[in-house]
Design goal:
By secondary structure, the chain is of the alpha+beta class. Helices cover about 40% and strands about 20% of the residues. It has a 5-stranded antiparallel beta sheet with strand order 1-2-3-5-4, with helices on both faces. Strands 6-9 form a two-stranded antiparallel ribbon. The chain has a two-stranded antiparallel sheet with strand order 7-8.
Length: about 240
């Protein structure tokens, strides 16, 4: 019913659905009244995606899909559609180069977003990794807007730009934190050599502090290893980085 309500209110023609993600219950191709292709996304309330629309507004199409409309009460977004929409991880010659070009464009003013320090407290990690998390959180440099789930399948081929970022899970964090999901992105290759290559190149070309970037990758990978079919890969990435 909600889908039909939004389609009528926003004058949309519904098309084929996409496979919904972990934080969405419905995602489908739609067309606007003038025939412009778009995407209708109805999300599931989730802490990490709470400010998704705000991040898209802050980026304003600069390296990311444009937000066309939002209905916060119903967790609904109308988004620019990426065509052809293939994943960055689908056989692109230099996907890491694409991400290195995109990342600084995403590092906008972070005012109004959940902070990484808040997220560390929410994760409540114990032991040595928890101590590391709290030490890093309390000694951050400049905070910028980061996408804490920026992996090989959250960047799509498009027409307005060659590649556009989707599905932001935004935080106010130092730049070194931003590389964590890319370093462990199994879609971009999962081996010790590939993980360390991504880590070394990201730090070198973006001018990041290697030890802080390594620490944050260990911390966030640990925090995001509570379930799903990716835990083994997370544990392997941690071993290669330690």
């Amino acid at each position: 019913m909600l889908v039909e309500e939004l389609a009528e209110e926003w004058d949309l023609t519904l098309g084929e659905p996409y496979m919904p993600g972990a934080a969405s219950e419905f995602v489908a191709r739609v067309e606007l009244a003038d025939g412009t292709p778009a995407v209708l996304k109805i999300g599931i309330p989730h802490r990490e995606s709470e400010h998704e629309a705000d991040a898209l507004e802050r980026w304003d199409g600069d390296g990311a899909v444009r937000l066309l409309r939002r209905d916060d009460a119903r967790n609904a977004l109308l988004l620019e559609r990426c065509k052809p929409g293939t994943f960055l991880s689908d056989g692109v010659e230099d996907p890491l180069g694409v991400l290195i070009e995109l990342l600084p464009r995403l590092w906008k003013d972070s005012a109004g977003f959940h902070t990484l320090a808040d997220e560390v407290a929410w994760w409540d990690i114990q032991g040595e990794v928890g101590d590391l998390a709290r030490e890093l959180a309390g000694t951050q440099g400049e905070l910028v807007l980061v996408h804490q789930d920026l992996h090989g399948e959250n960047v799509l081929a498009a027409e307005r730009e060659p590649w556009l970022v989707i599905d932001p899970k935004p935080l106010a964090a130092e730049r070194e934190f931003a590389v964590a999901p890319i370093v462990r992105s199994k879609e971009l290759g999962h081996s010790r050599r590939e993980v360390l290559y991504r880590f070394d190149r990201l730090c070198a070309e973006l001018g990041l502090d290697r030890e802080r970037a390594r620490g944050w990758t260990i911390v966030q990978t640990t925090a995001w290893s509570g379930g799903g079919d990716y835990v083994q890969e997370h544990m392997e990435a941690l071993a290669w980085l330690s």
